[in-house]
Specification:
about 150 residues; Nucleoside Triphosphate Pyrophosphohydrolase; 3 helices; globular
Length: about 150
C-alpha cells in the first residue's frame, strides 16, 4: 500500500510460571496448544481495569485450573506479528508463581492440555526461546531462594 500508513496495535498480556515442589524438585505447569505441538506458559490479555498481576493469576486459573500466588516478576517479553494489514506489538509480563491450590484442568476452549513438567525438562520442551529463557530465570531464582 504505497503512501498508506500501516496500522500498528499494541497488546498487553500477562502470564506465569506456576511452580510446585515434588520430592524437592520443581515442576512447572505447561500448556499445550496447536494439537499439542506447541508447549508454553499460560498467559492472556490484561482486561481493562485489571493489573498485570491480576491478569496473570486469572489467566493461570482459567487455562490450567490452578490457583497460585505471585512470588516475583520474572521478565517482560516483546514480540511482533501480523494479522492482515495490522502489525501487532505484544508485550507479555511473566511472573514466578507458587502453586497454592486448584485441580489441574485444561480450559479446552483455549488449550489442548496442561501438564506438570519437571523444570529442567520444561526448559527443553518449551516451544519458544523467550519462554525457555524465562524458565531458566525461574530455575535460577528458585535455586537462589533455597540456598
Amino acid at each position: 500500500m504505497p503512501g498508506g500508513k500501516r496500522k500498528v496495535r499494541n497488546e498487553h498480556s500477562s502470564g506465569g510460571a506456576v511452580i510446585a515442589l515434588r520430592d524437592g524438585q520443581p515442576y512447572v505447569a505447561l500448556i499445550a496448544t496447536r494439537g499439542r505441538t506447541r508447549w508454553g506458559l499460560p498467559k492472556g490479555a490484561v482486561s481493562e481495569g485489571e493489573t498485570s498481576e491480576q491478569a496473570a493469576l486469572r489467566e493461570v486459573l482459567e487455562e490450567t485450573g490452578l490457583e497460585a500466588k505471585i512470588l516475583k516478576p520474572l521478565d517482560t517479553i516483546e514480540y511482533y506479528f501480523r494479522v492482515g494489514d495490522t502489525l501487532i506489538r505484544k508485550r507479555v509480563d511473566f511472573y514466578l508463581m507458587a502453586h497454592t491450590g486448584g485441580t489441574m484442568t485444561p480450559q479446552l476452549s483455549e488449550v489442548d492440555d496442561v501438564e506438570w513438567v519437571e523444570l529442567s525438562q520444561a526448559i527443553q520442551r518449551a516451544s519458544f526461546d523467550s519462554e525457555k529463557k524465562l524458565l531458566e530465570m525461574a530455575s535460577i531464582a528458585l535455586a537462589s531462594s533455597s540456598s
